[in-house]
Amino acid sequence: MTEAQVWTMLGVFTTLMFGMLTIVSVGFVRVLRAEIGGLRAEIGGVRGELGGVRGELGGEIGSLRAELGGEIGSLRSELHGEISTLRSELHGEIGSLRSELHGEIGTLRAELGGVREEMRARFEAVDARFDAVNHRIDGIDRDVQMLVQRTFGVD
Asked: 46-66, pLDDT tens digit by residue?
């Protein structure tokens, strides 16, 4: 083979290699674009599914919130009723206890009034005895003075 043939063969081989490289790279870019487009479509579908799941969760959370609100409201009204019942029972018990205490205090006052009168009567009796003893002492004093005057002749 002559030098011109070798150079021609090299040119043809290089052209074929660059052509093949171009065809392969164009095919690769097309496949890559197609795959990226498919991924975008799948991601869009996933986004749609996520939006649906988000909507379902929002609905479930809303219904749960409403249900909890109802339960809390019923519990609150039930507690108010129980507290009102306890209040009325407590007021009744306090009222009856107050009545009993008033009765007991009245009874104690009456008993103390009787004891007071009894003590007053006893003190008056003791006072009367002291007056009688004092009167006797006055009489004895007079008699002693009279005896002293007779005995010693003192005027």
From this structure: 888 888 899 999 999 999 999
